Amino acid sequence: MTALTDPQKESFRLSMLLNDSRYRSITIQIVTLIAFLTLIGWLLNNTAQNLADLGKEPSFRFLTQPSGYDINQRLLEYTSQDTNLRAAFLGLLNTLIVAIMGCIAATVVGVIVGVLRLSNNWIVARLMTFYVEIFRNVPVLLWIVFTMAILIESLPAPNKFRGDTPEASMLLGDSVALTNRGFYVPEPLFSRSLGDLDVLGDASLRFGISLDLVAIVATLLAGVLLAGLFAKRANRIQAATGVRPKTWHWRLGVIVLPTAALLAYLGLHWGHPELRGFNFQGGTYMRNSLIALWLALSLYTAAFIAEIVRAGILAISKGQTEAAAALGLRSRRIMSLVVLPQALRVIVPPLISQYLNLTKNSSLAIAVGYMDITGTLMGITLNQTGRELETVLMTMLIYLTISLVISGAMNIYNNSVKLQER
Amino acid sequence: MKRTVILGALTAAGFAAGAASAATLDDVKARGTLNCGVATGVPGFAAPDSSGEWAGFDVAVCRAVAAATLGDPSAVEFVPTTGKTRFTALASGEVDMLARNTTWTFSRDVDLKFEFVGVNYYDGQGFMVPKELGVSSAKELDGATVCIQTGTTTELNLADYFRVNGMSYEPVPIETNAEAQQQYLAGACDVYTTDASGLAATRATFEVPTDHAILPEIISKEPLGPLVRHGDNEWGDIVRWTLNALIAAEEYGVTSANIDEMLGGTDNPEINRLLGTEGNLGEMFGLESDWAVHAIKVGGNYGEIFARHIGEDTPIGLARGLNAQYRDGGILYAPPFR
Amino acid sequence: MTDLSYVRTEMLPERDPPISTSGVIGWIRANLFDGISNSVLTIASLAFIYWVLSHFIPWFWSPTWNGSSLGNCREMIGAAGKEGGACWGVINERWPQILFGFYPEELRWRPILAFVLMFVALIPILFNMISRRWNWFLLALVLFAAVSFVGSGVIAVLVQIVLAVTMAYVGWQIVTTKGADRADQIKAGAKRLPNPLLFSAAFVFIMPWLLWGGTIWTPLAAAFGFGVGWGAFRLVSPKFGDLAGLILGVVTTFVWWLVLTGPVASGLNGVLPVGLEPVQSRNFGGLLLSVTIGVVAISVSLPLGIVLALGRQSDLMLVKWMSVGFIEFIRGVPLITLLFVASFLLNVFMPPGTNFDIILRVIIMATLFSAAYIAEVVRGGLAALPKGQYEAADALGLDYWKAQRLIIMPQALKISIPGIVSTFIGLFKDTTLVSIIGLLDPIGLSNSIRADTAWNGVVWELYGFIAFLFFILTFSMSRYSMYLERRLRTDHR
């Protein structure tokens, strides 16, 4: 009907910038870019002028100055004479600890609660619904404060352990003490320790790596790899002959025996906490602030995870289970081979975003005096140096990095399990 | 389209004009209210009552300044600030002055660029312990768990003290006095350290105050006082001399009860100058001649304010101690009104 | 085959199921003691519930409602012969403060009215289930109640009469016409009452005016900004195309708001001063502060979030990257850092001399925060739309904006409503963080209350009361959101 003709050679007109779709997108982008740059420039200009008025040039010199304050929970050695940067670094480590512990606990509790909510036991299901609703609908800050208050009000103070007829006593053969200052548990000690490997010498970010730990982890990993080889061999034999040889004792042996030998070589013994002076000494000490924050964050997040898990399980249609049963799979294998892989695809993306929320909520640590990055860099350091701009921006960047790493991991996982659609 | 909410809000609430370096007195007069930064709640020093009226020892300073500049002690907008936000609030012009138990230190004065106009309470950091611990000196606190209120100079003093004395300790940093008190009472810390006034105030509200002892060591000097921004000396003078007027009034025996009588003229020229019946002190910094009369009438002189909010007859029960007039063995010493 | 010896030809009478599987016992067996593990779980749960209640109830049931201080409470508890118990006197004395903060007592009808009106305004948006007449009737009822509560004098009586007549008329109409008849009438072209969405739109301006007070001309002038923008759009678009019109419309609207609204409003107010007593935002406190921050932030962030979501889906690389960058940045940092920005830095970013108070700064940051989350919710709604909808819109020859406005957005937003409500719940709960930067929200106020020597040491009662308030509000909202989700799901199946 129409003949294909060469497009007319139009001469360029100014109005084409707006009306011609070939140019329009470029116009819009340039206009946006200009507007954006103007905005940024305006903000920077204001900031510079305001700071000049206040007589505060942006400077990061405070990072190399002594912090002057102490941090109670320190994974690395630190004194009040160390720099603010090192204080921030220790705070960051504390953030990561509570975030990782919280994610693990929240997942465990969340999965259990999610499954129990579907239980046919009426009272358990109701109890779990109650738990989920009450935790989801009250601000997390209140939960953190609550948990702390419960901990310090309900557990005995260390001096209750004192005296001839103490009001409280240690558990598990005098090895564990639950006090309202925190939990004291035995710590592993090595009489023939390999020592630490110090990294970064004298810098603020220096840290030591325990060679004992490295050796143990390496032995364990090697054991697991070996056990994997055994399992592979068993699979091969099963495929060839139909009979699966018993290998579990071999597999267990290669994991446990070398590790046990290594521990014996290192001279493992346990350091028990003991009441000396004002506090228990020795052992590993989990402070009440860490416990409160950890419990509150994980219980709060677990309520959300429970809903996600429940939705994930409900999303798998009954036909899947029935089809698997028709194929003759046993119920445990149905769960592990058919339902879970499919449910995980639904569960994991929102689960990871809950991990992200937990990590971000850990910044409420200051409410219970847990010295995380918000408590050190954006807390006492900010307050003592008066460097608001620098500390707040640094803290934001650190959290942003953590979040991006987590969501990057999520994207990789998501791509690997994505349904291959049309 | 709902974006206008913010604009409506902005215009309705008004861009509180606050140029950081312009004449604060003019701003205050134009606005008709004084913006005064106070603590979010410290027993005896600043707390809102059930009808939302702020009261306390620090609050009284704000009211006196409002009365001196505007003639109306209720023309104050109280801006609650935390230990962290107080300096920004002052530097950015959100408040005209800060009356929030703030320690006068070199770096705050010089580096943070504030002007401390005087001291309304001489304090020092102390320790409180339960008597059952049997501790009688802070030197015996090696290995103790110490509750500290953060956002103050307290944590630095504490770190220094324990380091110098070669002792170890376990710091428990806590945001608010109320939570620190809870932890201390439950035995989650052995020691509670903050300014001695705060310790006394806290102890006074315990169920059995006598079970707790305040240790004799005072490990720091904490001169607490109101402060203003650098660069507006006239405004600094007004706040400084309002505070001095309250202190001087006590020295000369001017009280809220007898001030009207004294306005009729006394044979002490210093009092007459203070009350503006002689000379023109008020004019010199742009206020009415009876500015000090307004300030003193609000809550009386320094002694009366002290007695009403934190004195020995209140639940807080603080003795005057260092905060007595120099004649009575304290170090309050107002410069002459001349 | 034929010599079957016995075949029963009639049915046996039905028998009751065994007693162990029916009735209460049966229910208990089936639901509580079905197997060993279930029985263990049941007993453990019962023990747990008993343990909690046996501690909680004696504490809760404490005759201290009239206590005047903590010491007084302790005496009362001692007089009642109890070991310990709650001190409810603090709630009795301070609950108005926890609800309203420092909002002047005689003006508290304004926030109450604003939030009741908000429900009326939300009905056509969220529920969409009652007729227009009912909606207007409800509005007249609320206003009538408000006027009779606060108004006095001739004008109030006149307004009351007008409202009462309106109510009577509309009510009579509702009563006399059946729903089915009305539907037929509407089909036949009967005149309907105006769309209640008009009030919803107007409410956007009424709410800040009620809360903050000031002259009526400010919201009117701000609303007029849309008229200005629309006029500019209509003037320009025929000549230079829709896009240029749109840009110019937006620009003129903003110019109007930023430059002209203030002078025009104050000028008009000079001529005809009508208004409410202004209330400074620093007098906002308690739950009122939380709700205000939440509601204002979420409603302002809605358009912002939609723009961001569209930007994220845009083909224009630069726009897309900027949207992604903004969304990921905001979602990557904790709210508390943004609140610190509001508290410490926002004034530094603004031109020297500007200084708006901390609550507005917090609202600005909360808006940016929720905009990023809303953008993701809307993006989810856009992604959930079948591709066919986009293609159909293209096939009809609609341009981008028309397609968005007429086809995509109405559907995508509808799907997004539950997500938006959840975002709001999250934001509302997160408003408690403002206590960390010194604002007196319920948690912040609880600290101030404990600074009163009478109440020093009260912990559980205050936190419990606050938790209860939040629970009531968020629980009902989340129930509503679930209901909405269910309803929307049936629509699509």
Q: What's this entry about, in short?
A:
Chain A is mainly alpha-helical. Helix content of chain A is 62%, strand content 8%.
Task: Give a written overview of the molecule.
The complex is a heterotrimer of chains A (422), B (338) and C (493). Chain A has helices spanning 16-19, 21-54, 84-117, 122-136, 140-154, 211-241, 248-266, 288-315, 318-326, 331-361, 373-385, 388-417, and strands at 177-179, 182-185, 187-190, 196-199, 207-210, 268-271, 274-276, 279-281, 284-287. Chain A is mainly alpha-helical and 422 residues long. In chain A, the strands form four sheets. A three-stranded antiparallel sheet of chain A has the order 1-2-9. Chain A has a two-stranded antiparallel sheet with strand order 3-6. A two-stranded antiparallel ribbon of chain A has the order 4-5. With 338 residues, chain B is of the alpha/beta class. Chain B has 14 helices and 14 strands. Chain C has 493 residues and is mostly helical. In chain C, 74% of the residues lie in helices and 1% in strands. Chain C has helices spanning 23-31, 36-60, 70-79, 89-100, 109-127, 132-150, 154-176, 179-187, 197-212, 217-240, 242-271, 286-313, 317-332, 335-349, 358-384, 387-395, 400-430, 442-450, 460-492, and strands at residues 214-215, 275-276. A two-stranded antiparallel sheet of chain C has the order 1-2. In chain C, helix 12 packs antiparallel against helix 13 (317-332). The model of chain C has no long low-confidence stretch (mean pLDDT 83). The interface between B and C is large, with 61 and 69 residues.
CATH class descriptor name of the domain at 84-153 and 287-417 in chain A:
Mainly Alpha
State mean pLDDT of chain B (0 to 100 scale): 85
- Give the averaged pLDDT of chain A, no decimals: 85
Number of helices of chain A: 12
- CATH homologous superfamily of the largest domain in chain B, by name? Periplasmic binding protein-like II
Q: How far apart are the termini of chain A?
A: 35 Å
What is the makeup of the main sheet of chain A? 3 strands, antiparallel
CATH H level, superfamily name of the domain at 84-153 and 287-417 in chain A: MetI-like
The SSE string of chain A, one letter per element, is: HHHHHEEEEEHHEEEEHHHHH
- CATH third-level topology of the largest domain in chain B: D-Maltodextrin-Binding Protein, domain 2
Q: Please give the CATH architecture of the largest domain in chain B.
A: 3-Layer(aba) Sandwich
